[in-house]
Specification:
Layout (H helix, E strand, L loop, with lengths): L18 E5 L2 E5 L7 H8 L18 E4 L2 E4 L12 E3 L1 H6 L3 H8 L9 H14 L5 H8 L10 H16 L1
Parallel strand pairs: 1-5
Antiparallel strand pairs: 1-2, 3-4, 3-5
Helix pairs in contact: 3-6
Bound molecules: FE2/S2 (inorganic) cluster (2 copies).
The site of one FE2/S2 (inorganic) cluster has 12 residues, from loops.
């Protein structure tokens, strides 16, 4: 399959044009292979191992990151496509002390933990849009990501608790 950048330049077998983007609040510049995924860039080039690869098909959401505040599957996003954009990962949220991280830990809202960073990133996007989400809204919002272990109950509780903490803070 031919690969082209957002303005239609063919990139097969080549490095993409130099990439500049903001990663967890820090400006970065990289030259990346045209076919490199955003997950590979984060994991292999920046050593950010918190974003987990599971299905590799853009289905499960475990590899979710925020691109300009929107949850996206990093496994299915070309690295070059974040040029000029802001990318936030679980490491950035943890470093900022986002209440979601504490709430997930306090409620043990995980078992294997493989989905956890994607769930937190996804929930961050929800709380940014709706700081006081109804329980059903949380349930529906999180349904785009797959958790194979927990049954979601404690994940929903953690998101609701974090919403209270954000409001109180
Ligand atoms: S690993 Fe990316 S969506 Fe499943
Ligand atoms: S805690 Fe194992 S997949 Fe969610």
């Amino acid at each position: 399959m031919a690969v082209s950048d957002p303005i239609g330049r063919q990139l097969d077998g080549e490095d993409a044009p130099p990439l500049r983007f903001v990663l967890n609040g820090i400006e970065r510049a990289e030259t990346v292979p045209a076919r490199m995924s955003l997950w590979e860039l984060l994991h292999d080039e920046f050593g950010l191992c918190g974003t987990k690869l599971s299905c590799s098909r853009g289905v499960c959401g475990s590899c979710s990151v925020l691109i300009d505040g929107v949850p996206q599957a990093s496994c299915s996003t070309f690295a070059f496509s974040v040029d000029g954009r802001r990318v936030d990962t679980i490491e950035g949220l943890a470093a900022a002390g986002h209440p979601l991280c504490e709430a997930f830990a306090a409620r043990s809202a995980f078992q294997c933990g493989y989905c956890t960073s994607g769930m937190i990133v996804l929930a961050k996007a929800l709380l940014d849009r709706d700081p006081h989400p109804a329980r059903q809204t949380v349930v529906e919002w999180l349904s785009s990501n797959v958790c194979r272990c927990t049954g979601y109950a404690m994940i929903v509780e953690a998101v609701l608790a974090a919403a209270e903490a954000v409001t109180d803070g």
